[in-house]
Write a structure and sequence with these properties.
Homodimer. The chain is α/β, with parallel strands linked by helices. The protein has nine helices and twelve strands. Bound molecules: adenosine-5'-diphosphate. The site of adenosine-5'-diphosphate has 17 residues, from helix 1 and helix 8.
């Protein structure tokens, strides 16, 4: 049990999940879901069995990034995670709705309950890594996930813009408060590379990555540019065709639970 006396949820009989990594951000729109997908993709390319639990219940975007739709199968006991073309298992509320534009108008406890069920009532099978895409901020769902799931660590996604604010530090402080190791952070939309001269254009201002590394002792996992090719593939549901090699040592970092 944690310091509030809350036990971790056990794995069901269908599952053997070795490592669980959550992806969080201080605020929305920094590319958290895209980074979750890229983390999963790069682990899968290394030969690991990977799943993505879409815990962003009211703003689920994982199925769309992978072009996944249609109801998952179930056997009366559990719902079977769907599989992308590349073999990544996915569960998201969007797969369970009548239509993908149906809003989820639920109170916090119901939403948190749904996230827990994605762990207890979903057949994921054997996974080396389960990546949990959290909703932005430090609200109900991140709290539920940090309390109820056996997390190996969290990855914090930032943009140069939001590093200037206090939001990243809030996310860091929450993870520390909950005793969840921070594997590192990803600075997304860091710069735009001019296709003509190759110069880095700092669209959202100077990078604060170095400052975050020194002031908070966090490991920089990746600095991603604004990449129109990535945006296009995301929109088309073909993120699995993004061929940049990223997060080279993340598997080792997560296995060792190295915090900085
Ligand atoms: P969040 O989960 O933080 O709300 P998303 O991952 O849904 O953000 O990203 C928001 C939008 O920005 C998406 O349309 C995505 O395709 C785009 N995007 C994210 N990261 C990048 C990037 N590095 N380059 C280009 N587009 C990006």
């Amino acid at each position: 049990p944690d310091k509030c006396g809350i036990d971790k949820l056990p794995q069901n009989d269908y599952n053997e999940i070795k490592h669980v990594i959550a992806v969080m951000s201080g605020k929305g729109g920094v590319g958290k879901s895209s980074v979750s997908a890229l983390v999963a993709l790069n682990l899968a390319r290394k030969g690991y069995r990977v799943g993505i639990l879409d815990a962003d219940i009211t703003g689920p975007s994982i199925p769309k990034l992978f072009g996944l739709s249609g109801r998952p199968e179930h056997d009366g006991n559990v719902v079977f995670a769907k599989q992308t073309d590349g073999g990544i298992k996915v569960m998201s509320l969007n797969l369970l709705l009548e239509s993908e534009d149906q809003p989820v108008i639920w109170r916090g406890p119901v939403i948190a309950g749904a996230v827990k069920q994605f762990w207890t009532d979903v057949a994921w099978g054997k996974l080396d890594f389960l990546v949990v895409d959290l909703p932005p901020g430090t609200g109900d769902v991140p709290l539920t996930v940090m309390q109820s799931l056996p997390l190996d660590g969290v990855i914090i996604v930032t943009s140069p813009q939001d590093l200037a604010n206090m939001v990243v530090k809030k996310a860091v402080n929450m993870a520390n408060h909950m005793n969840v190791p921070i594997l590192g952070f990803v600075e997304n939309m860091s710069y735009l590379r001019c296709p003509d001269c190759g110069k880095e254009i700092k669209v959202f201002g100077e990078s604060h990555a170095a400052a975050l590394t020194t002031s908070m002792g966090l490991r920089l996992l990746e600095r991603l540019p604004i990449d129109p090719a990535l945006a296009e593939l995301c929109d088309a549901g073909r993120i699995e065709n993004y061929d940049k090699e990223l997060f080279a040592n993340l598997d080792e970092i997560a296995k060792k639970r190295v915090t900085n």
